[in-house]
Amino acid sequence: MLATFKVDNPQQSLKHRDVQHFGYEFQYELTGVRKDPPLERGIPSECFPFLDRLVSSGKLREVPDQLTVNRYQPGQGIAPHVDSHWSFEDGLVCLSLGAAVVMDFRNPQTGAHIPLFLPVRSALVLCGDSRFLWTHGIAVRKTDILPSSDGRHRIVSERSVRTSFTFRKVRRKDSCDCEHKEQCDAWKRKREQNQGDPKEVGEADAAKLESDHVHHVYESIASHFSETRHKQWPQVAKSGGKVSGFSSTRVTVAGCRVWKWKISFGAFPSA
After folding, report:
1. Domain membership flag for residue 218
2. Intervals of the chain under pLDDT 50
């Protein structure tokens, strides 16, 4: 199956990693896909005997419709992540070809860490909590520490070029029934939609808000304000509101009804 894919001409390069997408283009910033439109190029027919065996054996509930092929050079890795709940159904398949690697699984609730050795030509199926809760990733390094065949010792294994085939089933509905909201982007999307954008206030509603909150405040403080803020500034009272040197003066009120806060505008000098 590896010979079917021309990874020497990748669709894109991601951090020096060759990538090809089939069915739907995987968006790395989303750890998922944009569901529409699908790609013209679907999963190659050479993959279906392998996928059909997984379904018939009960490892998968349905045949995937999205495939991402990555070619990793020695020393390259994958940041820990959980694939988008909104984008994909339960059941992800990771097929490792060309080389073995250690994949790290971490439980964000308990802090548990499980390094899992993936041999060449192994297929890893993630379902349930391993799919929706645990993060998975590959450390950036050129060697892995592995147990010996008898389990009594540890050996250093040098990494080589590895090609991974990740098969996923795109979720057609926007909701997810998982129990892990802290990891669930579908739940977060729904919460944001329920909160919604601020609604536009109509004229009738605006008038009622002004009456209830603005006018009410002014009426409540009016008597106290008049009793304690009625005294005019002496020079303003003496001038009677006129400005020396100007033939006409227009005096306006800024914010209240009393002389203390009057401000002059639009004055014109006498000829």
Report:
1. no
2. 198, 246, 248-271
CATH, residue 126: 2.60.120.1520
Strand blocks (E) in 5-134: 12-14, 17-22, 26-27, 32-33, 66-72, 78-81, 92-97, 101-106, 113-118, 122-126
Q: Looking up tokens 């995937």, which residue turns up?
A: 64
Domain with 87 in it: 2-190+250-259
Those residues with Cβ within 8 angstroms of residue 10's Cβ, 6 or more apart along the chain or in another chain: 18, 19, 20, 71
Task: Say whether 102 sits in a helix, a strand or coil.
Answer: strand
**Contact between 55 and 62 (Cβ < 8 Å):** yes
**Is residue 264, in this structure, part of any structural domain at all?**
no
Residue 222 lies in a domain: no
CA Rg value for the chain = 35
Q: Is residue 11 part of a domain?
A: yes
pLDDT tens across 74-92, in order?
Answer: 999 999 999 999 999 999 9
* Count: domains in the chain: 1
* 3-class secondary structure, 112: coil
Would you report the helix, strand and coil content of the chain in percent, each value rounded to 5? Answer: 25, 30, 45
